[in-house]
Structure formats: C-alpha cells, structure tokens
Fold these 3 entries.
Entry 1:
Amino acid sequence: MIDFQDRVAIVTGAGGGLGRSHALLLAGRGASVVVNDLGGEVGGSGSSETPAQQVVDEIVAAGGSAVAEYSSVATPDGGDAIVAKALEEFGRVDIVVNNAGILRDKSFGKLEWPDLDAVIDVHLKGAFYVTRAAFAHMKEQNYGRVVVTSSNAGLFGNFGQTNYGAAKLGLVGFMNVLKIEGAKNNIKVNAIAPVAHTRMTEELLGPLAEMLQPEQVSPAVAYLCSEACELTGEIWSAAGGSVSRIFIGLTDGYFKPASDGPLTIEDVQDNLEVIRDPDGHIVPFSIQDELSKLGPKFG
Ligand code: NAI
C-alpha cells in the first residue's frame, strides 16, 4: 500500500474539482495537506475562503490533517505564503501539486492581452512561484515530488485556447528542465494531463461527463507524488480510470551526409515521408539524447 505518512503536500487550487480530489486522496493516505485556493470564479475574478476551508473540514472530519491557505499562486508573494504555511503548520514540504487554474477562452483574433496575462500568470508563473519556494527545502532534505497540471489543449490542441494551451505546454518545458535540476536531490517532476467533469468543463464533455469524475484522475497524481515513484519528466493522461503516457518523440528522419552536398529545400520536400516516419523514433530525456542520436550520423 502506498502511503504518505509524515509527508507534507501542497495542493494548489484544491478548493474544488480535481485539486479537492487530489487533496482528499493524499490526506486519506496519511499526508498533511495544505489546501490552497483563492476561491474565485472560473475566469479568475473574485475570491473566497469558503472552498478551501470546506475541503479542510472534510479532511479533518475524516480523521486527516490539513490546513487552508487562500493566497493566489499568481504572485511571488503568494507562492512564498503557501510554502510558508506548510512549514509553519507541518514543518516541511515534500510534495507540490500545481493544480490551480482558470480559463479565459477566446479565438486568437479576439484574445485580449489581459486574458493572456491572467492565464499565463496563474498556470505557468504560478507553478514557478509555488515550486521555487518549495524547491530549496526539497533540495535540502534530498526529497521532493512535483506535479504540474498540463492539458490536452496544449499538448494536442483545441479551438479558442491559445493562451491556455501555451501556458499548459509551457509547464512541460518547466518540467523538462526542473527534472534535470532536481535529479541529484531525488526531486521528481512529472506532469498530468487530466480530463474530468468539474465546473471548468461543465459544458464541454457531453454524455461522457458522468464517467469522468475527478476521483478517477487523482490516483495517477498521487502515484507521481509518492516515494515509490522513480519516474521523472513523464507526462501522463488520466481520465475516467484510464492512465496513459504522452511523450515527445524524435523521428529517425532524413539525413544527407556532407559528402553528398548541402541540404536543399527540395531534399526536404522530397523526403517528407522519411522525415515524418515514426518508426525508429526515440523519446529523448534531455538534449543529450538528441545530440547522441545526431553524432553517429556524422560518422
Ligand atoms: P476548477 O475550476 O474546479 O479548479 C481550479 C481551482 O483553482 C479552483 O478551485 C480555483 O478557485 C482555483 N484557483 C484559480 N486561480 C487560482 C489562483 N490564482 N490561486 C489559487 N487558486 C486558484 O477546475 P478543474 O477542472 O478542477 O481544474 C484543475 C486543473 O486541471 C486546472 O489547472 C485545469 O486547467 C486543469 N485541467 C482540467 C481539465 C479538466 O478536464 N477538468 C483538463 C485539463 C486540465
């Protein structure tokens, strides 16, 4: 049985939806949880202490340990305050689940800059602020588990979500670098791309909604937060009890040796199939893997 005894977890945006479900599961398996939530609307306006407090009450009523925290993740001070709460209440921080999020969907031509800023600030910069405040403690204790919440909107694409998609794929870049910087201190950094019926997806999922409960996503997140998890830099899709890996691959591609002359535009055009053929692709862990694949081509 995987448990989180003596572990302290921060779950951002845990006042409802997926975050609430992650917090309840982690607390149910013994973690002390900082339930952070600003308590605003889906679009990010407003604030309320009620959602976070209600989740804390639920955890405590079930015999668990939790404290509410109401800061916005979208400022450096907010990130610091959330981590300070974990240290004050529980004395350490082992797990950060970056889950807080908002939506400001607009087709690209209609996007207004405040909609871009707000979405980048919460999803992408929010993960920087909260994770960095925790990272120093994780390094010192040689242990940490960080999960970022990406999205199929950024990984695969969806109409009307350039701001959101860019923020969500930005988190994958964040993960890819932090997994390397955290490696020697046993800090694992992974990403989840969930699909779940929450207020955010109220009108999007149609008849599938009923099958897509947040509780069917949280076990994948909790695994990535556990000591048992040796994986780092993975992106997992989790939806309705289905868990899959999403990855960024590099095809073997076309190669023209220097002895055959310089690469031309027509070489590219004539070899589209070879360039795009997924057979023999690799999933690089870092840029070293890409360079290692390139090296032998030069002989
Ligand atoms: P939700 O709206 O129920 O939960 C988001 C929570 O974040 C809310 O409780 C909100 O108050 C909180 N929040 C928003 N801005 C905040 C801020 N600045 N600081 C602290 N808390 C803040 O929506 P849901 O679906 O549970 O979303 C959770 C995460 O999963 C989000 O990052 C979302 O983008 C992501 N996601 C959800 C999908 C789904 O199918 N529900 C699909 C892909 C990604």
Entry 2:
Amino acid sequence: MPELNLILLGPPGAGKGTQAERLQVDFGLAHVSTGDMLRSQVADGTELGRRAKDYMDKGDLVPDEVIVDMLTERIEAADAREGFLLDGFPRNESQADTLDAALGRHGRRLSAALMIAVPDEELVRRLTGRRVCVKNPSHIYHVEFDPPKHEGVCDQDGARLIQRDDDSEETIRRRLEVYHGQTAPLIAYYERAGLLRRFDGTRPPDEVHRHLRATLATLRLEEQI
Ligand code: AMP
C-alpha cells in the first residue's frame, strides 16, 4: 500500500482534530497533533513543556526550535512510516520547508495538503463552546452543537470533559490573528506545489468527513498507479 502523507490545514476550530480522528481510523494513518503533543509535555512538566507554555497560553506560536525536532522524530516513528496526518504542523513557511527537507532525507514526500475553510465568527462560536476529554484530547464536543449524552462526561470513555486553557475569547482572537498572519500563507505555498485540496468546513462534520474520505481514497488509488 503506498503511504499517504497528509497535512490538515485550516484555522483553529475548523475541525482538523475531529476529522483527523476519523480519517485515522479509515486509512490507518498516524494522527500527529503538535498541539496535543505540546499539551502533554506541559502536563508532564517537561523542559520542553515549560518552554512552550507561555506562548501557548497567549495564543502565540511556540518557537520553531522548540517544536521541529519533536515533530521530525514523530513522523519517523514506526506507526507513521506507513503514512501520517499532520494536524497543527506546519504553522509557517519555515516549518513547511523543514518538513519537506525531513521527508526528502528519507525519500518520502507529501501526498496532499487538505485545507478546511471556516470564517472567523463561526470559529469563535465553535472554540468558546468546545470541550475536550481529559483522557483523550481527540474526543471533542461542543456544549451547543455536539453535546455529550451526560453533561461534562465523555461519551466514549466516561472521562471528564474540560475546556482548553487557550479556548478563552481573548486568546482565540489572538490565535486567529496568528493564523491569518503566519499560517494562512501556506495555502498559497501548497497551491504552488500542486498539493492543495479545499474543503468547506462550515458543512456538518459527517459531510466534511465524506468529502475528505472520497478525496483520500482517490489519492491512494492515484498513488498506486
Ligand atoms: P493547536 O492544538 O494546534 O491549536 O495548538 C495549540 C497551541 O500549541 C498553539 O496555539 C501554539 O501555541 C502551539 N503549537 C501547536 N503546533 C504548533 C506549531 N506547529 N508551531 C508552533 N506552535 C504550535
């Protein structure tokens, strides 16, 4: 089976984590979320977590040197060698160049960059109401649009649901500003590389999932030819 190496692009709250969780199951890809990796380093009180925390709390990007080695090691791990789905990386052009170089060193390349588009006002509504499972941050809910069966409890494993520290309105605004300034230029970057595929993230999650799944199934077939 040819490997699918994918990037999920799009603003915070576009549904990258939700879709990645589903596509991971559909295609057996490693879901690599740099945000989840950083939050776990913060929770464990590691040196890397200490260096990252202030930036994350403010909604700024952590410096490239804090994150790049962590990411390159991760995509070379055994479970990612058959293909990966990057969620939250790259966040700027220098990270995109680093990723290209890291893949090239191993004779690998990107298959596609999947862009999930959602307007800012909708993102603010989504992020302020977002709740995540303490045990598995890929289990994601919304107090109004996708509530759990029992308030504050994860349907999938019964763990407590919490609000992420950076899901406050002020930090969300800053994260969106950072996205438009530093990450959105990657849309043109991947368009130039002929890798960009766009998806309408305002559609219901099941529908976005169907579109993504159909695109990836076609990509996989194309890679086999
Ligand atoms: P996320 O869960 O992807 O929204 O990421 C949460 C926070 O982690 C971001 O606001 C950044 O502070 C940090 N972060 C995650 N991925 C990256 C990255 N690729 N480069 C820099 N900072 C990142």
Entry 3:
Amino acid sequence: MAATRTLNENLKKAAPFRAKIEERGLKNIINGRHVNALSGKTYDNGSPIDSSFICTVAAGDAADIDAAALAAQAAFPAWAALPTKQRRDLLYRVADLIEENAEELALLESIDTGQPIRFMSKAAVRGAANFRFFADRVESANDGLSLPTSEHLNYTIRQPIGPVGVITPWNTPFMLSTWKIAPALAAGCTIVHKPAELSPVTAQRLTEIIHEAGISPGVINLVNGFGETAGKALTEHPAIKAIAFVGETTTGSQIMRQGAATLKRVHFELGGKNPIIVFADADFERALDTAVFMKYSLNGERCTSSSRLLIERPIYNEFSAKLAQRVKNLKVGHPLDPNSEIGPLIHQSHWDKVSSYVAIGQEDGATLMAGDGQHPAGLEGGAYITPTFFKDATPTMRIAQEEIFGPFLTAIPFDGAEEALQIANGVNYGLAAYIWTKDITRAMKMAHQVEVGMVWVNSQNVRHLPAPFGGVKNSGIGRDGGDYSFDFYMETKNISIALGDHHIPKLGA
Ligand code: NAD
C-alpha cells in the first residue's frame, strides 16, 4: 500500500511508528526482555535521508553477547525438542504477524536505510514468505537417508547444531535477517542476532514479532552494537556453534580468524562484482531492462547487482548510449516517495566511497557517460548521489574489479564468448552472473564455465526459494535456500544397527 501513496501520505503514516522508536530507543532483547546494554552505553542512529535522529541504540558488547548466548544455550534443549508441528505452526504465526506489520516494517526500513519504498514494501512481504517457506519444511528438516548393507542398517538423521549467531549487513536488513533466522528456527536452533549498526531498526521489530507469535524467551535474542565489539564477541563465544554471516569479504576473513579457537562452523555471503554478459544476438530491450534494474534497484547496494556490463562489440555503442539515457532518467528522491527509483545511500561514509570511484574511473581512462558522483540538485541534505555509468573500461581497472556497492555501473566491450568468459572470471569475486543470448548452446557452455555460484540466463535475478543461493571465490562459503540451509544449521548423524551376527574380531581370548 505504501508504494501507492504520495510522499506526504507516507510521511504521515510513518510518523507514529517513528515517534515510538524515537521515544523508546532500541534495546537489546535477551531472554524475552528489552534491556539496556550492561555498560549503559548507547549510540545515535540517524536517517540517510537528511541525517535526522531516529533513535538511540543499545551499544552491546562482550558482556551482553555473553548473556544472550547463555540465554540461547538455555533455551536450546526445549526448542529443539518441541514437536515439529508446534514449531511449524509458530513459524506460520510469525509469517502472519510480519504481514500484519508489513507497512510499519517497510516504512521504518526505508527511513533507516534509504531504500525506496517501492522495493521495501515487497521486502517486508518477502520476509513473511521466507518464514512460511521454512515453516513448510520443519517436518522434513530431520529427514535423512537409509543406507543399508547386508549386515547393518545405516540411517542418518539431522539434528540442530545448537545456538547460532546471525550477523547481518545494512542493505535490506529485514529481508536478509529473515533469510537466516527462519531456517535456523525451523531447524530447531536458537539464535543470537547482531544486526548492522547502521540499520538496526527492523531487527527489533522482528524479534518482538517472533515473541508475539508465542516463541519462548531465549529462542531468539538480539544484541545491537558494533562489529568490532558485539560482532566479534559473538563469533568467539564458546556456546555459539555456528555463524551465519552476510557482509563484506574482509569481515568474513576476520570472522573466520575470530571463530577459529572455538571451531565455529561458518556460512558466508560476501561481496560480488557480478557480470551481465550481453551478446549481440540478445533480446536488446530485455537485456537493457535487466542491466538497468540489476544495477540501479535497491540503490545499487545489492550483493547480486550486475556491476560489470560486458557488451559484445557489434552492439556496444548502441547499448551503452541507450543505457546512459536510462541512467540519466532514473528518479533519485526521497525513499518514501513511491516515484523514487533511487534513495540516499546508507551513510555519508558510504557516499564518500561510492563518490570517490568517479575520479578513480576517470583517472584510469574510462569514459563517464552518466553521473558525476555528486548530490543531485536539491538533494544536498542527504546521502543522495547521481547514478553513475562508465564505459570503455578495461577489465583490470579498479572500477571493473572492486565492489563499489552503489548505483554505479562499469561497461567493458568484448569480442566473442571466449573473451567474455575471460573477463567475467577475471575478478576475485564469484557470486552471480547474468548471460543474455539467444544461442542456447553458447549460454549453456558459458553457464558451466563461469566461476560463480548462481547464473541467470536471459533473466533478471528471480529467486526460487528451494534453489541454492551463495557464491564461490571471495563471494562466500556455503549455500542458503531449501534443504541447503538445513545442511548448515543441522548436524547429520549416522546410526548403524547390526542386523545379525556380523564378524567381531576376538582380542585377548
Ligand atoms: P560489513 O562486513 O561491514 O558488516 C556486516 C556485519 O558484520 C555488521 O553487522 C557488522 O557490525 C558486522 N561486523 C563487522 N566487523 C565484524 C567483526 N570483526 N566480527 C563480527 N562481526 C563484524 O558489511 P556491510 O557493509 O554491512 O554490508 C555490505 C556488504 O555485504 C557488501 O560487501 C555486500 O556485497 C555484502 N552482502 C552480501 C550478500 C550475499 O548474499 N553474498 C548479501 C548482502 C550483502
């Protein structure tokens, strides 16, 4: 609904939700209770729209993580042992409540992250779909294999690994949190969630909703705070058996080091520099729509965004020119305005980073086709940036190698499939690739050879929840989605039962 109202109507709708969190501030939620950080420390959370104050946030640290991890540990046996039908029904209830609160969640997420409401309304509903999807699978989560021999019946079962830590980033935080929390709860794990310090608002509402649905205190705990303190302590805590992390590649390696002493199982969804490869025979208009949508939706702050545009030379100039025109037409504006296609970036510090790549691209000799890395006119008060498009990049330029994570696209020409593949694979990342061609043999061959975890052929990024999601190389470790999620949140146990009198060697007889 929020996506069809005017900006003023949305501001009016959002006002009471915003006033409530401004008055109460965000606390930690440990064992079902809203609590201040044990140190009493807080930090201020502001909106990227205009730097206005949203609320204070509890600045949790190791002591709060310890309390939360012990609560999750204490709640684990009962939650893991709950009859599966009950667990399933509780997750359905969470999904229903997310839908009932979708408007509040979408409006607050837009204000907290700067993401346009046209996308955030869908993200809230997607969160509910994630819960419903994994609720449907609660009853099969424990399923295993039957592996009989003539003398033994081997069979496997899956059991929840224990309390887990979920660490989420600032881009689309609500949707990403549900993508981790729903399968962990479905598997029978208990959770300590540490949301990103720059966008903590909807995590509190999600934790509350999970409690409102009737899930017992301690099953999910929320600790706000910074990565170096709260996040680090969570990855080091001995009661926490696994860390599901979404964020930057460098943070992933840090977490691996931090978790080494306690042998943490880790699941990493990290950065990307995803190619969209457009061959001359592609459906020109649909490929153009995809290139624009996959880079400039969600403010370009999207791990699966197509940030490298590889165009076959015969259509290179025409495709680039049309794309530049589309980029110039993009509507940058207040995220609660349903007409806005791009809102402000998450924070001024991120604006500085994205903006700096305009000079880097120019110094390296690429051609600037759209954008200047500055504020659009009239939007100087927030972290708004003009959408940028460079062409004539070479594959080794920094704008063709580094994750910029903003509305910033780099085009590179290529001649033939071999060169396209070489360029596509010539980065450290390997999350997703988009291939556009009518030649099915070429598409299939390339899909097999491109070094990524996910390939979309003649398609934008359409998620199918049972399908595996994740990256290779510096883009991650492990897969989410369907049964793949349970492989992470559960241990597989083999049970072997003798069927008769098999041979047992006699020693010391
Ligand atoms: P980030 O790595 O800076 O932070 C992510 C989370 O990690 C935050 O909650 C932060 O507080 C925490 N953290 C930071 N240092 C930590 C430490 N030492 N120990 C434990 N936790 C720590 O990432 P970000 O800037 O918030 O998010 C953007 C990044 O996320 C981009 O690189 C993007 O590609 C990636 N991302 C990947 C996917 C995917 O599916 N592959 C999805 C979304 C975002």
